[in-house]
Amino acid sequence: MPAALPSRFSPVVLALVVAACALVASGCRTAPDPADRPNVILIMADDMGQGDPSAYNDSSKIPTPHIDRLADEGIRFTDAHTPSSVCTPTRYGLLTGRYAWRTALKRGVLWGYSPALIDTQRTTIASLLNEQGYATAAVGKWHLGLGTEDSTDYSRPFQPSPVDYGFDMFFGIPASLDMEPYVYVDGDRVVQAPTDRVGRSEHRRQGGGGFWRAGPAAPGFAHVDVMPRTTDRAVDFINRQAAAAADRPFFLYLPFSAPHTPWLPTAPYADTSGAGYYGDFVAQVDGAVGRVLDALDQRGVAENTLVIFTSDNGAHWPEADIDAWGHDANNGWRGQKADIWEGGHRVPFVARWPGHVPPGAVSDETICLTDMMATLAAIVGADLDRDEGEDSYNVLPAMLQQPYDTPIREATVHHALDGMFAIRQGPWKLIEGRGSGGFTAPQRREVGPDEPAGQLYHLGRDPQETENLYDEHPEIVERLRTLLAAYREQGHSRPLP
Questions:
Q1: Same domain for 242 and 380?
Q2: How far from the centroid of its chain's Cα atoms is residue 18's Cα?
Q3: Of 164, 261, 327, 475, which has the fewest CB atoms closer than 10 Å, so is most exposed?
Q4: Mind listing the pLDDT tens digit for each residue in 3-16?
Q5: CATH code at position 381
């Protein structure tokens, strides 16, 4: 049973923790009957906004029939957030259930030659499920560092690599598709060493062929092939697991490299959207989702598979793109990728689990991608120790549309590219600082002597974050500031056992 919890946690949150603990015997992880454990596929797009899928935006200019199908057959969350408005820290938070700003990565992202960010002793959702008997795989974009050297050595096996974090296999690319080196990684080593070199390619916005940086590359590496090739490997894993181990559930983490730059839609998706190369690349992501769903249907395992689709942050889609294409990739939320405003971290999140998640459901519960660890632990009947998933809440009651009386999360912390913090509780959102903290100018704004030192918004009345109430509600500013400070100092934000 959990130890006594601080009084600020609601009785409902306490009840959820107690219920999770009741699923295990004597504090030890025990696997329930295999028939009760679903396969899990967690798909994460790279830089897709909440306004891209038609399920979220009736005015979307991008065809997304397969993501829409997931929403029709499952649940769509309207208030889902990434823990960061950029890539690496979100991936860390998703896999560990812990905010990445608790690590050495206080701002920005990793690069292709960065060392591993995740401690090999830390529990991930893959290691947790692997311990429960799951076959586990990661396919796509890693972007969490490789090895321990200051600059990763691609001439020898990596230690650690993705297979040191609970994944039985990994296939994909080291970082973003516009970051060197341009190679495929299979398990703990490259498929081919980066002995060639490619030149810089300019962004589509500037009339280029799709942005990437100059740097080392494997012979014959072609950026346009990454999405088809990784999708093939994901489908192969599904087919192999369904055929070879019907009594063993599987977990597939599928972090796509798209629609992040370079925008390189293949021929079947070219000119299929009304939002240029970006929209066509989103359509290709949707097509890849369709291939996954088709594989589940063809193998007869769709009924016992939980499929989740989300994104690692908002779209890199400034006002100029909205004006040029008449498409709002971030669904009317202020800002874009990297920003502390809602457009930076409010993302699509849909989940389908036949017979469990009611079809066509919509939830306005505030959730965060760090919550995947506690939620999956609850599904398989595993308990989390104090040093596991410190910022992860079990959102299964919201996903299953079970009754509950108060919000599941006490509060949610947001983090921008330059390290700016925000904390959200109920309708109130406090931002520590002025500016976007990200790509939208100004990133940081100097504060005058008679100006508010930060930003406070009531998202219920002002979802576009236009009216700064910082000076009007000092008591709310102080309450949220104190709670954020507590989260920083105590090393966790969820109630611990």
A1: yes
A2: 27
A3: 475
A4: 333 333 333 333 33
A5: 3.40.720.10
